[in-house]
Specification:
The mean pLDDT is 92. With 140 residues, this protein is mainly α. Helix content is 96%, strand content 0%. It has helices at residues 2-51, 55-139.
């Protein structure tokens, strides 16, 4: 039983580790989405200033190209994180299934042990009862 209990602990640790990875990927996705939203807000602000003329209208072209490059980079990063997140979800599901196998095996072994103990106790009580019955019959 110690081996199965150890496997349960190992698989719990594995599940927790894979869950942490998934959580980190979710946090990274949120950060990237926030960065994309901030970039869009910054772009709107720069467009507004560029319409006003002056230096902002002259440098807006270079700025727009850098925004496009940053937007593409964020989009690629989001796509990569989405793929990694999907794999991480599969890993978590697989780890959970493995953990459940060992937990069920441990529960079955515990149930069998208790049944064996109960059977042994019943047998002892039956032996005591039979012995007492024989004594009473011999006394009469």
């Amino acid at each position: 039983m110690k081996g199965v209990a150890a496997m349960v602990r190992i698989h719990k640790w594995t599940l927790e580790e894979r869950s942490r990875v998934l959580q980190e990927l979710d946090r990274l996705r949120q950060k990237l989405q926030t960065a994309a939203a901030q970039l869009e807000a910054e772009l709107v602000n720069e467009q507004h200033q560029a319409r006003g003329g002056g230096v902002a209208s002259i440098t807006y072209g270079g700025y727009a190209q850098s925004v496009i490059a940053r937007r593409d980079h964020i989009a690629k990063s989001l796509a990569e994180v989405a793929a990694e997140t999907e794999q991480a979800r599969k890993d978590v599901a697989a780890a959970f299934q493995e953990l459940k196998k060992y937990e069920i095996a441990l529960a079955n072994r515990e149930r069998q042990r208790k049944q064996k103990e109960a059977r042994a106790e019943r047998q002892t009580l039956d032996d005591i009862g039979a012995s007492m019955h024989r004594r009473r019959r011999n006394e009469q």
